[in-house]
Amino acid sequence: MIIIIPGIAAVLVLLLCCRCHVRGLTPRRARYLLEAAAQVATARRLRILGCCAAGKSQLRGSLGKMLQLPLVELDTIYWKPGWVMRDHEDTLGILAESLGDAWILDGNFMSKPRDLERYGLNRQIWDNTQCLIWLDYPFWTIYLRAWRRTLWRIGTGEPCCNGNRETWSLLLFDFRNSIPYFVWTGHGKFPERLQELERIFEERIHFVHLQSQRETDYFLNSIAKIAS
Hints:
CATH class: Alpha Beta
Largest sheet: 5 strands, parallel
Number of helices: 12
Strand order of the largest sheet: 2-5-1-6-7
Mean pLDDT: 88
């Protein structure tokens, strides 16, 4: 039975016609981003979190080029071909073997505070993290990105996550396992999660909170100037 997707027509219109409003930077935010860039530019172990379609992979790639650090994508480790999830212990074992003395790690796997004590190896990876960057963009910005990216991948056959592909059958017949649905249901859960992580690691990890694409661009430009 096809699951009816609420507001799909309106979403498609917005995808074609809407340009999301991005707020300008205040002097206070600009100073914050400059200070954050200085911290990140000297770090050797970075982690990037954010809702699906927030731009984690793109940010990872940009930082990797600037800082010359190895890149690790959690989704590629966690997802087997055919959208089969790997066991948590196996995922952590592979991840630990992939991480050296320096890395940029993106993905939300095992980022819930309750997983820190459940899996000792996960806590060890978190303890070694120096900087955490949270992409906290407005809901509609990310939701529209999710739709745009999903439709692009379906149309072009572009793979993701260890060769897996988004398809019309997944979108229409299994919508609860689609990326737009994950954004719809998961975006609002991140603030509480990040606040708890910051409370736990406030003395160990430097947290960077990016609230718009403009802030991210300014942040990256600042790092580029420092690293050059």
